[in-house]
Amino acid sequence: MAKADKKNKKIIQSKKCIGCGICYSVCPVNAKVMKSDDFDPDTAELAIRIVDGMAVISDEVCIRCGACSKICPVESLTIVELESATA
Ligand code: SF4
Ligand code: SF4
């Protein structure tokens, strides 16, 4: 029984992040959230944000599209497929 894709993937983050914010700007979830008229960066449900110079992913909101991991200049983010996702 196939689970939703999202459950089988995870974004793994290393400490190499330099806080450049590129991931923040390419994330499609963030883009969608930012289009909202009442967008507030402090409370919005962003999939990835920069906190204290480091990218922080919200597992709950992230859809595991991998865009951030592809674009990160220091390969700080890696999308991995989990072998089996047991609930
Ligand atoms: S994770 Fe990569 S793209 Fe995102 S802020 Fe860090 S260095 Fe930049
Ligand atoms: S994998 Fe998650 S955090 Fe990264 S760009 Fe896609 S939705 Fe955003």
Question: What's the quick description here?
Answer:
The chain is built from 3 helices and 4 strands, in the order E-H-H-E-E-H-E. It has a single domain (5-81), classed as Alpha-Beta Plaits. It is α+β, with helices and mostly antiparallel strands.
Structure, explained:
- There is one protein chain.
- With 87 residues, the chain is α+β, with helices and mostly antiparallel strands.
- It is built from three helices and four strands, in the order E-H-H-E-E-H-E.
- It has helices spanning 22-26, 28-35, 67-71; strands at 9-13, 48-51, 54-57, 77-81.
- The strands form two sheets. The chain has a two-stranded antiparallel ribbon. A two-stranded antiparallel sheet has the order 2-3.
- A hairpin with a 2-residue loop joins strand 2 and strand 3 (54-57).
- The mean pLDDT is 90.
- Bound molecules: iron/sulfur cluster (2 copies).
- One iron/sulfur cluster (SF4) binds next to helix 1.
Helix and strand arrangement:
Layout: E1 9-13, H1 22-26, H2 28-35, E2 48-51, E3 54-57, H3 67-71, E4 77-81
Antiparallel strand pairs: 1-4, 2-3
One iron/sulfur cluster binds at residues 11, 27, 29, 47-48, 57, 62-68.
